[in-house]
Design brief:
Helix content: 55-70%
Strand order of the largest sheet: 1-2
Radius of gyration: 24 Å
Number of strands: 2
Structural class: mainly alpha
Order of helices and strands: EEHHHH
Number of helices: 4
């Protein structure tokens, strides 16, 4: 029965159509070669960062982490040059390492935010390519 099936959006003849059960729509598995069973108006929007609030937070925290930790780490490294006490050297060294780790987190947040914005409307169709790309692998 055709009413219980979805027709994939492929450029084919009427005799060569691909039918997918409606129960398979928006199930996370790509059944159509053109991905139309997962990437259509009926399916929820798919994004790298699915929550708009989380996306805004990443856009806010990423640059802030970069700027503030650049300042903090630079000041700590300058201060380390003049330290004579091993205890202060150890403590300031740890503070510098934490700042560096937070700076790297800021780079990550900014890179994911940029990618989320770049793929905003097309992510569903390029999801597989994105997940196996060098850019995504680098961010993992």
């Amino acid at each position: 029965d055709c009413r219980n099936n979805f027709v994939c959006n492929v450029n084919s003849t009427r005799h060569n159509l691909r039918y997918v059960p409606k129960s398979a729509l928006c199930d996370g598995r790509y059944d159509c070669a053109d991905l139309s069973d997962e990437c259509n108006e009926a399916c929820p929007r798919v994004a790298i960062i699915p929550s708009p609030a989380l996306s805004r937070t990443a856009w806010l925290l990423g640059p802030a982490a970069l700027i503030l930790n650049t300042i903090s780490t630079t000041e700590t490294m300058v201060r380390l040059r003049n330290v004579r006490s091993p205890t202060i050297l150890f403590n300031d060294g740890l503070v510098g390492l934490v700042g560096l780790g937070d700076w790297i987190t800021g780079v990550y947040l900014l890179a994911v935010s940029v990618s989320n914005t770049y793929f905003q409307d097309d992510y569903c169709k390029v999801r597989h390519e994105w997940l196996v790309s060098n850019r995504c692998t680098t961010l993992r």
